[in-house]
Every structure is written in structure tokens, then in C-alpha cells.
UniProtKB/TrEMBL annotation:
Keyword Cytoplasm appears in the UniProt entry: no
Name this polypeptide is given: Uncharacterized protein
Keywords: Repeat, WD repeat
Top-level taxon of the source organism: Eukaryota
PANTHER family, per database record: HELP DOMAIN-CONTAINING PROTEIN (PTHR13720:SF33), WD-40 REPEAT PROTEIN (PTHR13720)
Organism placement in taxonomy: Eukaryota, Sar, Alveolata, Ciliophora, Intramacronucleata
Length: 219
């Protein structure tokens, strides 16, 4: 399985690989031999700010922390089975990108701009099409998928200062959202995670939200 870990580190267990970033480079390290291969200068000299791996371990995404000479920050999709060669280059964010997240089905990629950018973009990976880019009212400090059904369309949640928002891609690729009322109006939400409670056929999960004050809200 592929595991996304905080701090730009990804582990692909069946390939015995650890993937991490070092400024402008992507490093592929074998867990057994500790040998390394470096994908140098992956984003035209810009520092790499995030990595993401698709659920089936076939696609690796990376993004830059600032725009390059083309005037936008770049997202690069690489084929894991294709020797990590570049398959797609996606551009929309005028400033840097902080977060990348593949949908469970692998059909979509979410990219969130940094605090200067404040845009949220949804990409259709099979075509490389930008489905939607929306300017958010604030910077979201946490983002998580909500749906784990491979047949379902993309559902995710974002949290930030005094904000908890649910998002969904419709069958016609419209981006819909719903703002959830918080128990306390002035909470600064810093992180979000979805934890399974019951396995199939129930597929029950809870949403855990962390706050700046050190509390955890369970939904």
C-alpha cells in the first residue's frame, strides 16, 4: 500500500520505496539497500511543497511552493510503473501550492493554494482538465477525503479559522459545498482526519477535527 505521511514523505510498501523531497528534488530511496535515485530540479528550480500518491500506487503527484518563469505554480504527475516519468503537467495556481490529495477512485486530484493564493482546484486526471478553480474566503489549514467508496464521486472537507466546509463533485462535475455550523463560533480549526469505526458492509466513520486550543471535535 501507498501511505502519505506528513512532511513530504511517502512510503510504497510493495515496492520497498520511501519517497521524499529535498528542496527542488524528489528522492526515491530503497528501504532494503538504502540506495537513492534523485529526480533533480523537478519544478523548474522551485521548491517542492507537497507530494501525493494515488490509492493504487500508480501515480505520484508533486507541486511547487512558488510560481516559476511561466507565472504559475506547477503540478507534475508521474507514472510509478513508468519509471517515474512525467505524464502530466497541470497549471492554475498563480502563487504557491500547499496541499495535494488524490480521490479514492484516482479520477480526481485536489490542489490547494498557499495563504497568498487561497484557491482550491479540482483536476480530472484522465484528461488533465481543470474541472473547477474557486477562490476561497480563507486559507484552509486542513483537508481530508470523506468518502471511501471507489464508485462514488469526490467528497471532501476543509477546515480553517471559524470554518468547516463540506465539498462534493456532482455527476456533471459541478463543485458543490455546504458550510457546517460550529459548536463555538470562534474556534480556529487546524486539522481534520476521517477514522473508520465499523468495517463493511456498514462503512461507518467519524470525523476528527483539531483546534488551535488543543481540543478535538468528533463528528
Amino acid at each position: 500500500n501507498g501511505v502519505n505521511v506528513q512532511g513530504n514523505i511517502i512510503s510504497i510498501q510493495d515496492k520497498r520505496l520511501i519517497i521524499f523531497t529535498s528542496e527542488t528534488d524528489i528522492v526515491l530511496q530503497n528501504k532494503d539497500s538504502e540506495s537513492q535515485r534523485v529526480l533533480e530540479n523537478s519544478h523548474n528550480g522551485q521548491h517542492i511543497s507537497a507530494l501525493a500518491i494515488s490509492r493504487d500506487n500508480t501515480l505520484l503527484a508533486s507541486c511547487s511552493s512558488a510560481p516559476d518563469e511561466e507565472g504559475t505554480a506547477s503540478i507534475i504527475i508521474r507514472g510509478v510503473e513508468d519509471d517515474f516519468n512525467k505524464k502530466l503537467e497541470l497549471r492554475s495556481h498563480k502563487n504557491g501550492i500547499d496541499t495535494l490529495l488524490f480521490s479514492y477512485c484516482g479520477e480526481f486530484l485536489i490542489s490547494q493554494g498557499n495563504s497568498d493564493d487561497k484557491t482550491l482546484a479540482i483536476w480530472h486526471i484522465p484528461t488533465g482538465e481543470l474541472i473547477k478553480s474557486t477562490l476561497c474566503p480563507l486559507y484552509y489549514s486542513g483537508i481530508s477525503l470523506l468518502e471511501n467508496d471507489l464508485e462514488s464521486k469526490l467528497m471532501f472537507a476543509t477546515v480553517g479559522r471559524e470554518a468547516f466546509r463540506l465539498w462534493k463533485i456532482s455527476e456533471t462535475h459541478e463543485l458543490l459545498f455546504y458550510d457546517v455550523e460550529l459548536p463555538e463560533a470562534e474556534l480556529n480549526l487546524t486539522s481534520i482526519s476521517v477514522a473508520p469505526v465499523l468495517p463493511e458492509p456498514y462503512n461507518t466513520s467519524v470525523v476528527l477535527i483539531g483546534t488551535e486550543e488543543g481540543d478535538v471535535i468528533i463528528c
